[in-house]
Structure to design on (94 residues):
């Protein structure tokens, strides 16, 4: 079974990360820094720096996994190890 991550705007006007295991409030500063980092590495360059891409992947993994270990747990339990990110609600909240 795939794991679904959804970004949602809570009633307190803060972002939450939700998945099949629960939800947690996102730190705005950390979220903004991660978005900036992803946008810097989103556009292709003549040569990509492999070390930068590995670090970005590790940060994204740690961020999705969180203290709760959601990503680790899902990857251990999943047959197909598929993860869905629903970003539609994030863009609607801007």
């Amino acid at each position: 079974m795939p794991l679904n991550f959804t970004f949602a705007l809570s009633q307190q006007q803060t972002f939450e990360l939700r998945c099949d295991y629960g939800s947690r409030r996102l730190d705005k500063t950390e979220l903004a820094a991660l978005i900036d980092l992803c946008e810097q590495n989103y556009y292709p360059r003549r040569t990509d720096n492999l070390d930068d891409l590995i670090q970005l992947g590790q940060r994204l993994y740690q961020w999705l996994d969180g203290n709760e270990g959601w990503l680790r747990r899902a990857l251990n339990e999943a047959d197909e190890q598929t993860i869905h990110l629903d970003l539609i609600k994030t863009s609607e909240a801007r």
User: Anything to note?
Assistant: The two ends are 31 Å apart (CA to CA). The chain has a mean pLDDT of 77. The chain has four helices and four strands. Strands lie at 3-9, 15-19, 22-25, 83-86.
